[in-house]
Amino acid sequence: MQEGAAGNAGSGLRVAQKVKLSTIADALGLSTATVSLALRDSPLVAEVTRERIKEEARLSGYIYNRRAASLRTSRSGIVGVCVHDVMNPFFGEILKSIEDELDRHRQTFILCNHYDDLAKQRSFVDTMLQLGSDGLILSPAIGTPPADIRLAEDNELPVTLIARTIEGSGVTGFRGDDAYGMGLAVDHLIARGHRRIAMIGGTQFTSTGRDREAGYLAALKRGGIEFRPQWRLEGPRDRHSGFDAASQFLAIEDRPTAIVCFSDLVALGVMYGLSRAGLRPGHDIAVTGYDDIDEAAIATPSLTTVANGQSEVGRRAAGALLERLRGAEAGEETILITPELKIRQSSGHRDFDS
Amino acid sequence: MQEGAAGNAGSGLRVAQKVKLSTIADALGLSTATVSLALRDSPLVAEVTRERIKEEARLSGYIYNRRAASLRTSRSGIVGVCVHDVMNPFFGEILKSIEDELDRHRQTFILCNHYDDLAKQRSFVDTMLQLGSDGLILSPAIGTPPADIRLAEDNELPVTLIARTIEGSGVTGFRGDDAYGMGLAVDHLIARGHRRIAMIGGTQFTSTGRDREAGYLAALKRGGIEFRPQWRLEGPRDRHSGFDAASQFLAIEDRPTAIVCFSDLVALGVMYGLSRAGLRPGHDIAVTGYDDIDEAAIATPSLTTVANGQSEVGRRAAGALLERLRGAEAGEETILITPELKIRQSSGHRDFDS
DNA sequence: CTGAAAGCGCTTACAG
DNA sequence: CTGAAAGCGCTTACAG
Q1: Following DSSP, what letter does each residue of A185-233 receive, concatenated?
Q2: Please, are residues B139 and B115 in contact by the beta-carbon 8 Å criterion?
Q3: For a FRET experiment, which of A188, A216, B31, B265 has its CA 20 to 30 Å from that of B223?
């Protein structure tokens, strides 16, 4: 009969008969308008009234219904964040700074891994759309077409890209200057006397992978070194596959004396693999990483790497999105954060013979 | 004037004038009731009509408004998951299996780190309540009072606990049998001939910390070894603090020959620290971890550890919550998953002298 | 098989 | 400073 009539079970009730604005209003002999205003600290409501209302809300265990509010205002207070994998410390560190920034602006943030699965990413974007999310921070899955970004934008879901960017997406993106950064690592190894330098990890399918490889190739050329295809072991992007790649590396004929890795995770895996084979990274073979995750400094040997500005990427991406929520126009540029070389033990403490 | 009148801008419009059920209904000369039913595949709607409706929805770029639906049905399709830190692979692995399980049931899951900050956890629970979330999977922050759990439960937000449990919370929890598991590791070291065994990491403030310590102490006693307070280095719970603890360990007088660590992360950090000091873990000193995270098998030396059933914890916790969403009663028990010892290199390949 | 109407719990002009 | 009323976009009995 009265299916929805959860109803006002009386005035000062401390029980859970679903307290809503009207419950409080009734109890106090006020209107829901006044209660609504008071709870949001509107100066329109007299101080005394406001306090009475807040007190009653507290006592009655009132819970604000954000769905209802959001349906009315079309603001949800939600920002979606979707990356390849939050377990990867590289993303973890970016997320931490996004979280800080969003927290400060009282936005709820919803996290999602797409594992480079386009369908999973789409379903997340869809969910954000359906929830009326206020914005989306995305590190796009491999193969994301610009249309996927525009779908969101066209439906009033502002998007900011991080770590990876997409040609023609028409939205702002923040990432490190990967080509430059990888150049730094390779230059460093060349300066230490290496002439045969391998690169392990990364794929052609992300901007990150392409740019880091380009930086590697450019630096070799700069150093007057002719690249040999067998030096390039594509693929690995995590610790495990880095570990596996170590044995492939060891089988390369006229074996390189140094390895630049796609990421710290890959480098750490490679170092585990080399040690397993009885080689001492930083001694028998120079190894560099990329990202400067927390672990790089305590790894043994400590890892020479390229600091990639994760927290700056996160902070600025969140900042840019918040700007847009305040009505700013979408920028279309990709903003490159300048990376920095961190020299530690894994690249060797002395010159190598090559 | 007509602030909310986004309105039906005409029939077959492909433009973004906010398409809603009524837009589709108008375009097709049907009622919103029929459209709503059709879009959710109700057999009440004739096949042909259903197809026409779906086609129109697709063409017009209709986006389902979940807030509106959820306001009406008081089902949101959202499950919140809150843990100490998703970057910790231990939680990461649990989350992955929760994610799989929830995905299969088309529940959106919202992730949150509380970093053991009670206020942050509360604000997350609040958000879930306000969003009308369907359920909550929680690894409670240190010091969580049972009342915080009951607040959620009293407001129809079913809670399932993972990894850590809380006395008197009255809800189901899933975690490994920590005391038993730690006993396994210590027994193993004793069997290898160790008589002085330190324990690094963990705190009294979590059930996990207490139980693992209890397991350690019980196993020493079982082995006829008298515990010495200087063997117990409390505190470390991540890689970095494990690394730092290594030097404290080295300063212990009459130094132990073996270390059981609170977690793999701590053990991995300890091993980095020992190596840094020129000691070879698994050779000069035996080390064990706890959790059997992915990295344990590829670490060098590979890490002897206790498999803690992360994916089983995640899967069963999600399963139990889904059961409750289907109307099952809340259980009150804590379910212990039986852990398993994984013997690898770090505990030594031969007997030690003690 | 389809439609008219009420209602989920808020917020927002508008009046007073 | 406070209240009455409309409306956000759905879904759900109920009628036909």
Answers
A1: HHHHHHHTT---EEEE---TTSHHHHHHHHHHHHHHHHTT----GGGEE
A2: no
A3: B265
Q: What pLDDT shows up at residue A4?
A: 31
DSSP E strand boundaries for chain B: 78-83, 108-113, 135-138, 159-162, 173-176, 197-200, 232-233, 258-261, 286-288, 305-307, 334-337, 340-342
- Kindly report the pTM of this predicted structure: 0.90
The distance (Å) linking the CA of A29 with the C1' of D1 is 15
CB contact under 8 Å between A111 and B86, yes or no, is: yes
Put simply, whether A282 touches B (Cβ < 8 Å) is: no
- Chain A residues within 8 A of B89 when measuring between CB atoms: 87
Judging contacts by C-beta atoms under 8 Å, the chain B residues touching residue A96 are 87
**In the predicted model, what is the mean pLDDT of chain B?**
91
Say which CATH topology domain B3-64 has.
434 Repressor (Amino-terminal Domain) (1.10.260)
Determine contact, residues A154/A330, Cβ cutoff 8 Å.
Answer: no
| Closest by Cα among B8, B25, B26 to B17 | B8
Contact A154 B300 (CB under 8 A): no
Distance of CA A35 to the CA centre of its chain: 39
Beta carbon of A34 within 7 Å of strand D? Answer: yes
Q: Which CATH class is domain A74-176+310-338?
A: alpha beta
Asked if A104 is an interface residue toward chain B (Cβ–Cβ < 8 A), one would say: no
Beta bridge partners of B336: B175
- What is the greatest pairwise CA distance in chain A? 88
Question: Are A61 and B127 an interchain contact pair (Cβ–Cβ within 8 Å)?
Answer: no
* Protein residue with the closest CA to the C1' atom of nucleotide D5: A33
The answer to whether strand D lies under 7 Å from the CB of residue B74 is no
Average pLDDT, chain A: 91
Residues of chain B with CATH 3.40.50.2300: 74-176+310-338, 178-308+341-347
- Nucleotides, chain C, CB distance < 7 Å: 1-14
* Closest residue, CA to C1' of D7: B4
How far is A146 from A166, CA to CA, in rounded Å?
7
Residues of chain A with CATH 1.10.260.40: 3-64
A92 touches chain B (CB under 8 A): yes
Residue ranges in chain B modelled with pLDDT below 50: 1-16, 351-354
A323 burial via Cβ count (<10 Å: 0-12, 13-18, 19+): middle
**Residue B238 one-letter amino acid:** D
Q: Report pLDDT digits (tens) over B276-332.
A: 999 999 999 999 999 999 999 999 999 999 999 999 999 999 999 999 998 888 888
B119 CB near a chain A CB, below 8 Å? no
Ordered DSSP codes for B171-192: S-EEEE-HHHHHHHHHHHHHHT
Q: What is the pLDDT of residues A122-145, one digit of tens each?
A: 999 999 999 999 999 999 999 999
Query: Choosing among B79, B136, B298, which should be mutated to test the A contact, i.e. which has the most A CBs within 10 A?
Result: B298
Q: Does domain B178-308+341-347 have CATH number 3.40.50.2300?
A: yes
What is the C-alpha separation between B37 and B183, in angstroms, rounded?
Answer: 58
- Judge: A16–B129 Cβ closer than 8 Å, yes or no: no
Q: Which residues pair with B175 in a beta bridge?
A: B336
pLDDT for position B328: 85
**Nearest nucleotide by C1' from A43 CA?**
D1
What are the chain A neighbours of B96 within 8 Å (beta carbons)?
87
pLDDT tens digit string along A143-181?
999 999 999 999 999 999 999 999 889 999 999 999 999
